[in-house]
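ok so i was messing around last nite and threw this chain in just to see what happens. nothing serious, just curious
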Amino acid sequence: MTECMDPGRRHAAARFLERFGLEVGLNELLWIEREVQSGAARRVGVQEAREAGDGHRARRERHIYSVAIKGNDVRIVYDPEARRVVSCLPPEWRAPTQRREEGAKRRLRGGKRGYTHQRRHGGRKR
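result:
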């Protein structure tokens, strides 16, 4: 089934098999992508983008979602620009702390501590 997939999806299918023993085909990956795009999957983290350099290739920002697949709670890595499942994380992977997640949400909205913080605390941030 994996021979009809592009290399990125083939990688994701291999990780599902390696980490959870789940044989995931193209239809399952498309279903997961629709779950993410429709908002049915819960986002639990963000992998920051990485600049090229120091021997590393550049990497786009990736979002991490929690999806129930065949009775397993699986954390999948999703590329919002390509709109594809890239991989899945090992079962022992832990979600980032709530504080880091809130900061990631704020960055995604494009906001930062500023106007609201200033109004609540009586003036400019020093």
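not much to say yet. Residues 16 and 22 are 5 Å apart (CA to CA).
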